[in-house]
Amino acid sequence: MKASLDWALLGEADLVIEAVFEDLAVKQQVFRRVDAAARAGAVLATNTSYLDVDAIAGATGRPPDVVGLHFFSPANVMRLVEVVRGEHTAPDVLATALALAKRLRKLPIVTGNAFGFVGNRVFSAYRRQCEFMLEEGVLPEQVDAALEAFGFAMGPFAVADLSGLDVAWRMRQSQAATRDPQDRYVRIPDLLCEAGRLGRKTGAGYYAHEGAGGKSRGAPDPQVQELIEAESQRKGIARRRFGAEEIQRRALLAMVNEAALLLAEGVAARPSDVDVALVNGYGFPRHRGGPVFWARERGADALATDLRWLAQVSGPGFRPGDPGRVLLTPASKEPA
């Protein structure tokens, strides 16, 4: 293995993986250069975590050779790989990507080409539901404590501070033009970013990290509480108390509902793929099996009732999924 700035060396490679900044125009620019340098028949893979693989492939003269290979960070540790099949991805290219993942001792799942694929779509729905609860009465540390008690290594707001709030901010900005203005939208994370609170790397996010006294999560910040309460007041939302069980229930049901939507859209091939993704890429507690396994334990009637309740509390813009989708077993097309 050797490092080089010579693009011509790509002509020697059987497979090229791009992993540049998560910006569509930048990735398209790189793929044009890769297309010019790579040999005929080489597999061209993009490590995008949420961008349109077909739009990236369109920058080349060979879309059938392009596939998504979304490695999870840190890639040398995390087992999960989303292998993203574009509209024109050739079967042998998909098979090569799967074989590579297995050779690297990774755990691959095949996904369709949709914004966020499987993992980020489900995690975004989970985080969004937790943001709804911030408006309604809880604080970041209460949400994180409830979900850590369920078994997550870190709650969603601690995760956001660790990874950087600007990552999700860029995703929301890229979707702003197509967002229905009538849909419920939580401004709290945007306001934190606009205030320069991008997480641990800036010393402040949902938590205060400078002078936190060694706390790994950071310390609760009165300024964040004030910002959250001001947003509730601006929207006319009367804040109330939440118990840990309600926080857990809403967060997990949001995952299950998004899983149902992904299965209906064909982005996820089977319900178990959602569990594989969340357990191996997002810290869902392994002993809980995954959100689909958790949903099946609730039973069909309870799950249907729960998802109707989730739609009611979530407000405008919530897309209800068919609970039967997550209850299907591999051996049957009927709900379990």
Provide the CATH superfamily of the domain at 7-112. NAD(P)-binding Rossmann-like Domain
Q: Shape, please? A: globular
- The H-and-E topology, N to C, reads as EHEHEEHEHHHHHEEHHHHHH
The name of the CATH topology of the domain at 7-112 is Rossmann fold
Helix content: 40-55%
CATH class of the domain at 7-112: Alpha Beta
Give the overall pLDDT as a whole number: 93
Biggest sheet, spatial arrangement of strands: 1-2-3-4-5
Oligomer: single chain
Based on CA atoms alone, the radius of gyration comes out at: 21 Å
Distance between the termini: 49 Å
Characterise the protein shown here.
By secondary structure, the chain is of the alpha/beta class. Among the domains are: 7-112, NAD(P)-binding Rossmann-like Domain (Rossmann fold), CATH 3.40.50.720; 149-235, N-(1-d-carboxylethyl)-l-norvaline Dehydrogenase, domain 2 (Orthogonal Bundle), CATH 1.10.1040.50. Helices cover 48% and strands 9% of the residues. It has 14 helices and 7 strands. The strands form 2 sheets. The chain has a 5-stranded mixed β-sheet with strand order 1-2-3-4-5, with helices on both faces. It has a two-stranded antiparallel sheet with strand order 6-7. α4 (119-136) runs antiparallel to α10 (244-265). The chain starts with 14 loop residues before the first strand and ends in a 9-residue tail after the last helix.
